[in-house]
Specification:
Elements (H helix, E strand, L loop, with lengths): L7 H20 L3 H43 L6
Helix pairs in contact: 1-2
């Protein structure tokens, strides 16, 4: 069975969490809290990058499959 499906809403969630962690890091007065927020931002950003790449690959695969199906269903021309 395939892994979880990453959807655009998940991408938006990951980006929002990264933005939130960045804002928390900027507002933090304690060094260890600031560093924790920066690590969190990096993790959320990595998830967003992965989700974006997955979406792009899924779109490319769907396009390739559609083109292949169209080529199969296209009538052959007789000369």
């Amino acid at each position: 069975m395939a892994g979880p499906v990453i959807r655009s809403s998940n991408l938006q969630f990951f980006l929002a969490r990264a933005d939130q962690a960045r804002a928390e890091a900027e507002a933090a007065t304690l060094d260890h809290v600031r560093e924790r927020c920066r690590r969190s931002e990096a993790a959320w950003s990595a998830l967003a990058d992965k989700a974006e790449r997955s979406e792009r690959l899924r779109d490319q695969d769907a396009k390739r499959k559609a083109e292949a199906a169209e080529a199969v269903t296209e009538p052959t021309r007789v000369r």
